[in-house]
Amino acid sequence: MTKLKAVMFDLYGTLIDIRTNENRDETFESLSRFLEYRRVFVSGKELKELYFSEVNQQFARSREKYPEIDVARAFRQVLQNRAQTTDRYLAMITTQLYRSLCREKMQLFEDIFWTLNEFRKDYRLGIVTDAQRLYCNPEMRSLRIEDFFDAIVISSNYGFRKPDSRLFHIVLAMLDIPASAAAYIGNNYHTDIVGAKAAGLAVAGLIRQSEKDMQGHSNEPAPDFVSNDLHDAFKWISENTEI
């Protein structure tokens, strides 16, 4: 049996049940009205065009195989170019307001608190997530799960996304454990399983997979387990590994 010291998780879709819509015109109209109070006058239509243009430029400039953008930097650049302001605080609150307006649903899956408590009794815990720093930490805090984790790695801090194995190596270094002593649980084959296997983690499993999702998986690398939810994943790890 594999001896584990740590279990790491994907965040959105694995621990947090979330649905967002980043493209609604109404969202940018609301941002436009907010910015008027800060003496920035730009229509919602123009703001949307400028924002997505900056996002596309970030992707185009990146040399990474799996590039990640920085939403705060995109808004900061838009505000600088459009309103000649370098107010980083304004860029930050505009970014977080944008996120709040995009959110249609955000809650923990039902099995999260109990299972994280059970995992924490025997393992160090970490997060490796494709996310934005200005969204991720406050959302984890608001859902009261931030303190479960000894290490949190967020892709926007590094400019690349999963399945880049470097993100997994970063969290392993933060936890000071070898890949052979770590497990990873996610909900996306192409980012979570491919990335964790490329990083050499001992165990990589999937949860919340529909039949349609499963049909899209290639045979290599194969997940070590596929479970219905986090509780089932905890049961599999408990029965098939040692502490």
Short description:
The chain has helices at residues 25-36, 44-61, 71-83, 88-102, 112-122, 133-142, 165-175, 189-198, 211-215, 230-240, and strands at 2-3, 6-9, 16-20, 103-108, 124-129, 151-154, 182-186, 203-207, 225-227, 241-242.
Got a strand count?
Answer: 10
The description of the largest β-sheet is: 6 strands, parallel
Query: How many structurally independent domains?
Result: 2
What is the CATH superfamily label of the largest domain?
HAD superfamily/HAD-like
Write the layout of secondary structure elements.
Blueprint: E1 2-3, E2 6-9, E3 16-20, H1 25-36, H2 44-61, H3 71-83, H4 88-102, E4 103-108, H5 112-122, E5 124-129, H6 133-142, E6 151-154, H7 165-175, E7 182-186, H8 189-198, E8 203-207, H9 211-215, E9 225-227, H10 230-240, E10 241-242
Parallel strand pairs: 1-10, 2-5, 2-7, 5-6, 7-8, 8-9
Antiparallel strand pairs: 3-4
Helix pairs in contact: 1-2, 1-4, 2-3, 3-4
Any descriptors?
single chain; 243 residues; alpha/beta; Rossmann fold; 2 domains; 6-stranded parallel sheet; two-stranded parallel ribbon; 10 helices; 48% helix; 17% strand
Can you characterise this structure?
This protein has ten helices and ten strands. By secondary structure, the protein is α/β, with parallel strands linked by helices. It folds into two domains: 153 residues, Rossmann fold; 85 residues. A six-stranded parallel beta sheet has the order 6-5-2-7-8-9, with helices on both faces. It has a two-stranded parallel sheet with strand order 1-10. Strand 7, helix 8 and strand 8 form a beta-alpha-beta unit. Helix 1 packs across helix 2, helix 1 runs antiparallel to helix 4 and helix 2 crosses helix 3. The longest helix has 18 residues. It is elongated.
